[in-house]
Amino acid sequence: MWAANGVVPAEPARDVALMDERTVSAIAAVPAPHIDTINVTQSSKVHVGTKVVSITQNVHNKEMLKELPLPLYLWNIIKNSSRTERLSCAAALTALSVCIALIVYFSVQTSKTSTTGDKPPHEWNITRAMWLAKPHTNSPIADALRPVMLVVVQHTVSQQCTVFSQCAAEVRKMQGNFLQDKKYDIPYNFIIGNDGRVYEGRGWNIEGAHTYGYNRCSVGLGFIGDYREEIPNLARVTELQLNRTRMMLDAGVTFGYLRPDYQIVGARDLQDTVSPGSNLYNALKQFDNYDHQKRFAGLNCEQIQEKYGSVEL
């Protein structure tokens, strides 16, 4: 093509190789190399021999996790989430916080209740008011039979207890059963718990309902549990129980409810019964005031008073 000025324009540069037939034949006779894999970077088309090959790149993006402070990490999560997701997370966190708060609250309250319940109001002398006895009117011992000279020991044949809260509950249960079934108050003047505490039953100078024929002239003690050695899982009397019993009886002497020479016996010394159980009965025999002579068996209260009222035992 000619320009207006008669100058032939220059051809654009081309990558052209002129080969005759002999050269082409020689090249064609050379076997083509076998190519398995070609690693190509930043290219979409490559000349391979006489062909233009399209290259498909598989790009593997690896997200690099960087250590971020927790607040910033959480903020990134919140920022990249939708409004619905944020509301759902807020509701879940609120519910979780409420559950944790309730668990902590009830755990603390249970701990306080347990601690308070097992903290006795007195070291060993538990009054009716302290174990929450139901009020009941009982008959007093006649003046002619005071001060009392006889202490009768029974066992309750009921569930054992090891701490104040359990023993107080057991005494309340015992009183409730007698009030419902027998229509009278707990039969013992005092109850000795397995925790070594003395629980006031009917109290001093009050007729009991523990040993038929002797209730009007004795103090009845009921040891919680079953002390028969002939049975499995029997209750075993402890030194603490025995020592607290002595303390209570000494107080009775001091306040004039018991004679200083009072005698202590098991119910089996007066009646045909296994009470108070062989384990407790053997322990009673070690008391200085135990009646080894069994002098009260077969006598009623008037006969006891007549025979021993003015005699030192």
From TrEMBL:
Provide the transmembrane region boundaries: 87-108
Q: List the Pfam families hit by this protein, alphabetically.
A: Amidase_2
What does the record give under GO molecular function?
N-acetylmuramoyl-L-alanine amidase activity; zinc ion binding
UniProt domain N-acetylmuramoyl-L-alanine amidase: residue ranges: 136-277
- Gene3D superfamilies for this protein: Peptidoglycan recognition protein-like
Query: What UniProt keywords apply to this chain's record, in alphabetical order?
Result: Immunity, Innate immunity, Membrane, Transmembrane, Transmembrane helix
Top-level division of the source organism's lineage:
Eukaryota
Nucleus as a keyword of this entry, yes or no, is no
Q: Which GO terms describe its biological process?
A: innate immune response; peptidoglycan catabolic process
Residue span(s) of domain Peptidoglycan recognition protein family: 126-271
PANTHER family for this protein: PEPTIDOGLYCAN RECOGNITION PROTEIN, PEPTIDOGLYCAN-RECOGNITION PROTEIN LC-RELATED
Q: What does the record note on quaternary structure?
A: Monomer.
Family under the similarity heading: Belongs to the N-acetylmuramoyl-L-alanine amidase 2 family.
Q: What is this protein called?
A: Peptidoglycan recognition protein
